[in-house]
């Protein structure tokens, strides 16, 4: 088997012609679907060229990796783990909270947890890259006195559950969450550095890393590899938070510099293509670093279910699904029902099945438990109690590797009770 590994060679402030040619060839081949570290001076780059290298398959313990069992995962968002407002913020209290999560997952026939451990450029684990998360103590950067991820991995495995570490790669702050960044937060430190200050973007709606820079991509990749190297996790999981906006002002300076650098030697990529190239470079580097740390750790991404929307966010999902070296699994968030006018579930699921052509990439389906019994999709969820069950049945017909359910709280919600009971019947 072959692996396509993305890499970037910094050649000063200008992007070399050969790199651009490789970028165009590597990226444009897949645009037929439509729709949508520090090593130098920090100048923006489009992406790296792709090289082939031999890699043997690695067998791990993960049910998703081996294909021996249908994965049934539930997302556990940071809100579920929040200790910041608890009177008791001790290790014992955290263990008690997580034991409840484990019991709920087992009660509903789950075999994996997707646990939010890096929601805002912070960490629910001991990290050399990120400050402690505010959700543990109420204050970002404050050591809780224990290692939540170490505890969660041990407890999950003791219960027979996989644990995948869920990371948001580029967001640092959204609106006022967290309210205050710690002094050791990279965003705070980088703003004091003339070069690195461009690595972050402050907007009215938050603060984000800028993936146009190699230094940012390297930092994110090394942060993911840190988890793979230091914890017995079964996987590293990114969701759909890549570029937070289509607004051209987000990275106007970097894109202008890129166009000027290549205008004399070829036709520059469009803004969308260029952003996709940056994210492709990030994703391939994350994959590479994780495998270097521990080849058995899976790397997966849960993009939006609408492929056009993904492209608008810089997520070139077609590339990830067609070539080895980006992800081990893809889990589109198909948070729609069969009657959705814009994106009917069956149409979307079959489109994704056709998109995943690389034999080394597994397809899972992300399902919206939270919508069950609600007024979403013009109230159509209220008219049926077997939507999720039918979605699982279709997924099995398409021979996908399993399902991920959003989210843990809604498995036992009164609103979702009938839907969950019916889907549990076929998960038995």
Account of the 3D structure:
- With 428 residues, the protein is α/β, with parallel strands linked by helices.
- It has a domain at 2-168 and 210-330: Alpha-Beta Barrel (TIM Barrel).
- The protein has helices at 17-28, 63-66, 78-81, 91-107, 134-137, 148-158, 186-190, 214-230, 252-262, 271-293, 307-312, 317-322, 345-355, 387-397, 408-411, 417-427, and strands at 2-6, 50-54, 71-76, 112-118, 162-167, 171-174, 200-203, 206-209, 235-238, 298-301, 329-330, 362-368, 402-406.
- Strands 3-4-5-9-10-11-12-13 form an eight-stranded parallel barrel, surrounded by six helices. Strands 6-8-7 form a three-stranded antiparallel beta sheet, with no helix packed on it.
- Strand 7 (200-203) and strand 8 (206-209) form a beta hairpin.
- The model is unreliable at 1-57 (pLDDT under 50).
**What is the makeup of the main sheet?**
8 strands, parallel, barrel
How many strand elements?
A: 13
| Terminal Cα span | 36 Å
**How much strand?**
5-15%
List the strand order in the largest sheet: 3-4-5-9-10-11-12-13
Could you say what the CATH architecture of the domain at 2-168 and 210-330 is?
Answer: Alpha-Beta Barrel
- The amount of helix comes to 25-40%
Q: Runs with pLDDT <50, length 5+?
A: 1-57
Coarse morphology: globular
Structural class: alpha/beta
- The first-level CATH class name of the domain at 2-168 and 210-330: Alpha Beta
Rg is 21 Å
Order of helix and strand elements from N to C terminus: EHEHEHHEHHEEHEEHEHHEHHEHEHEHH
What is the mean predicted local confidence, pLDDT? 88
Number of helices: 16
CATH structural fold name of the domain at 2-168 and 210-330: TIM Barrel
């Amino acid at each position: 088997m072959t692996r396509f590994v993305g890499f970037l060679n910094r050649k000063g402030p200008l992007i070399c012609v050969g790199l651009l040619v490789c970028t165009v060839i590597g990226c444009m081949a897949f645009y037929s679907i439509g729709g949508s570290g520090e090593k130098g001076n920090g100048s923006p780059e489009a992406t790296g060229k792709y090289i082939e290298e031999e890699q043997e398959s690695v067998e791990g313990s993960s049910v998703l990796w081996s294909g021996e069992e249908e994965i049934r995962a539930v997302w556990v968002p940071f809100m579920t783990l929040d200790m910041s407002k608890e009177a008791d913020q001790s290790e014992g209290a955290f263990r008690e909270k997580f034991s409840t999560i484990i019991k709920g997952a087992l009660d509903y026939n789950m075999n994996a947890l997707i646990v939010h451990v890096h929601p805002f450029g912070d960490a629910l684990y001991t990290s050399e890259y990120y400050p402690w998360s505010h959700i543990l103590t109420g204050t970002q950067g404050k050591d809780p006195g224990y290692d939540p991820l170490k505890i969660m991995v041990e407890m999950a495995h003791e219960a027979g559950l996989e644990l995948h570490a869920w990371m948001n790669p580029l967001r640092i702050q959204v609106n006022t969450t967290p309210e205050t960044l710690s002094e050791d937060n990279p965003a705070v430190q980088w703003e004091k550095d003339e070069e690195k200050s461009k690595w972050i973007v402050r907007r009215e709606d938050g603060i984000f890393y800028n993936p146009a820079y190699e230094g940012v991509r390297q930092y994110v990749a090394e942060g993911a590899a840190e988890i793979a190297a230091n914890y017995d996790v079964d996987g590293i999981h990114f969701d759909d938070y890549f570029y937070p906006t289509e607004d051209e002002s987000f990275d106007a300076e970097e894109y202008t510099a890129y166009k000027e650098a290549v205008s004399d030697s070829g036709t520059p990529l469009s803004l969308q293509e260029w952003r996709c190239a940056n994210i492709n470079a990030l994703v391939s580097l994350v994959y590479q670093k994780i495998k270097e740390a521990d080849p058995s750790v899976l790397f997966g991404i849960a993009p939006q279910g609408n492929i056009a929307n993904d492209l608008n966010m810089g997520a070139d999902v077609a590339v990830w699904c067609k070539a080895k070296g980006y992800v081990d699994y893809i889990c589109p968030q198909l948070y729609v029902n069969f009657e959705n006018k814009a994106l009917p579930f069956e149409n979307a699921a079959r489109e994704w099945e056709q998109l995943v052509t690389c034999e080394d990439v597994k397809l899972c389906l992300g399902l919206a438990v939270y919508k069950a019994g609600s007024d979403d999709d013009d109230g159509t969820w209220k008219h049926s109690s077997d939507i999720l069950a039918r979605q699982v049945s279709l997924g099995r017909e398409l021979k996908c590797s399993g399902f991920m359910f959003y989210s843990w709280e809604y498995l036992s919600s009164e609103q979702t009770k009938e839907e969950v009971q019916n889907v549990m019947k076929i998960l038995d």
